[in-house]
Amino acid sequence: MGGVRKKQEAQDLHDRLKAEGWRVKNLGDKPRYTLQKAVVRWFREQCRKKSIADDKIHLRWLDPYLGGLILPSITRDIIDNLVIRGKQEGVAMPR
Helix (H, G, I), strand (E, B), or coil: what is residue 66? Predict the structure, then answer.
């Protein structure tokens, strides 16, 4: 039964990605990126940055909260709540 579910999930993902690609190509929609994908690209582009190790620490902490979210869905309220949570957990937030 688990194999059937995984196959269906894979097919659903394929269908969503194909539909999104069609919308981008034919309707001019902008591609939707998750924070996780944006972070990967950002690290590729910023690999020579001196503070990259600190950035990794902060982004790893954020990943469970924001990693799967589509970029436009990350609001100021979400960020403010994470800053509060970070302070409560003793995480030094970047300035």
Answer: helix
d(CA 78, CA 89): 16
Domain boundaries, the chain: 2-89
17 burial class (0-12, 13-18, 19+ CB within 10 angstroms)? exposed
Does position 59 have pLDDT exceeding 80, yes or no?
yes
pTM of the model: 0.61
Residues 6 or more apart whose Cβ sits within 8 Å of residue 42: none
- State residue 73's pLDDT score: 92
User: Which stretch of DSSP H or E encloses residue 65?
Assistant: helix 52-66
Closest CA to 66 of 53, 51, 83: 83
The string of DSSP letters for 26-55 reads HH-PPPP-BHHHHHHHHHHHTTT-TTHHHH
Query: What pLDDT sits at residue 57?
Result: 87
